[in-house]
Specification:
By secondary structure, the chain is an alpha+beta fold. 30% of the residues lie in helices and 16% in strands. The protein has ten helices and eleven strands. The strands form three sheets. A five-stranded antiparallel beta sheet has the order 1-11-4-8-7. A four-stranded antiparallel beta sheet has the order 2-10-5-6, with no helix packed on it. A two-stranded antiparallel ribbon has the order 3-9. It is extended.
Length: 353
């Protein structure tokens, strides 16, 4: 027996748990016995369920209408591509036009994206080259960018950059204008909206302009534009609610893509007048202010028009993944069934002997 004495004033069994089923871990429990008769049907049902879900997802994705037009070196854009290979030509304006046609109408909401290939936004040093405290509008970080933005934090004379970092510095700056051609002599601008293209939490929480918000010129006084920008951040738009750090084109770009080939939302269709039902079938053209250089990293640029479904845009990845998983589960189930039947016969034969 232990010779340890309880301290003065203590009571025996004071720390003993209550004598209840819960605290004494005596609650009734069910421990299923795993048998082939119960496990194998579960495998088969799971496999069939995954395949059915996969087929449903593939059918849903197939209902999404999408057209992709690569304009990197398309026709007169080839001259702009060559021009942008030399950084010294960045101040020279270059515009081009690409044409395409829709064989059938894009009904419902239509979204316009720009696509980039071979651009690694997921590179580790690139991903951290930003200052979230600056982007949320904090005065100290506005004038004192984070060390993670180096070397895109300040100019040689010490002037801080807003927004700082490699991500903001490399923002996509091509301008895309969509036109509809009901006949050869008519060119109708397609009305596009540039608001509500970013995540709600991004534009209301993660990105905020510094004070005074009603005078962005004064708010960003003492800062300079990123190295590769043509104008300061407070001149990105003439709309007050879409300017500065809350500019939605900037916000969309600042959310990095996971893969080197990606698309980002650029505009959405304003469903008015003849575009009330969506984009009618026919001929279209995109007028491009060709500014973004992609030749140095062997990239490609494209404009994408797409509808959406409850699943999102056009992508078969999730459906194929479900079908592949279901097929693997069924193969495993069949293999286990064969093994079970084979060894079961042997065990029955031994029992009969």
């Amino acid at each position: 027996m232990s010779n340890r004495k309880d301290p003065p004033g203590s009571q025996p069994f004071m720390k003993r748990p209550d004598n209840t089923a819960f605290k004494q871990q005596k609650l009734p429990a069910w421990s299923p016995t795993l048998k082939a008769e119960t496990v194998l049907p579960f495998f088969f049902l799971s496999g069939v369920a995954c395949i059915m879900i996969g087929v449903l997802l593939i059918i849903t994705a197939a209902g999404v209408q999408e057209i992709k037009v690569d304009y990197t070196e398309e026709r007169d854009c080839a001259e702009c591509y060559t021009l942008r290979l030399d950084r010294a030509n960045s101040i020279i304006d270059c515009a081009c036009t690409v044409s395409f046609s829709l064989s059938e109408a894009f009904k419902g909401d239509v979204f316009m994206y720009y696509g980039l290939n071979n651009f690694h936004q997921n590179q580790r040093h690139y991903m951290v080259s930003r200052d979230d405290a600056q982007l949320v509008g904090r005065q100290y970080n506005l004038k004192n960018p984070s060390i993670t933005c180096v070397p895109f934090d300040k100019y040689k004379n010490g002037t801080p950059i807003a927004p700082c970092g490699a991500i903001a510095n490399s923002i996509f700056n091509d301008t895309l204008q969509l036109f509809y051609h009901p006949d050869k002599n008519t060119e109708t601008p397609v009305p596009l909206l540039k608001t509500d293209i970013s995540w709600f939490t991004d534009r209301t929480v993660k990105f905020q302009n510094p004070s005074p918000k009603d005078n962005l010129t004064a708010a960003f006084a003492g800062t300079a534009r990123p190295f590769y920008w043509w104008k300061p951040v407070y001149q990105l738009s003439v709309e007050k609610n879409n300017n500065g750090f809350v500019n939605e084109d900037l916000i969309v770009w600042m959310r990095q893509a996971a893969f080197p080939s990606f698309k980002k939302l650029y505009r959405r269709l304003n469903r008015t007048q003849e575009f009330n039902e969506g984009l009618p079938a026919g001929n279209y053209s995109v007028k491009i202010s060709y500014n973004y250089p992609v030749g140095k990293f062997k990239g490609r640029k494209s404009v994408i028009l797409s509808t959406v479904s409850w699943l999102g845009g056009h992508s078969n990845f999730l459906g194929v993944a479900y079908c592949a998983s279901g097929a693997i589960i069924l193969i495993v189930a069949i293999f286990l069934t064969v093994v079970h039947l084979k060894f079961r016969k042997k065990s029955l034969g031994l029992e009969e002997e």
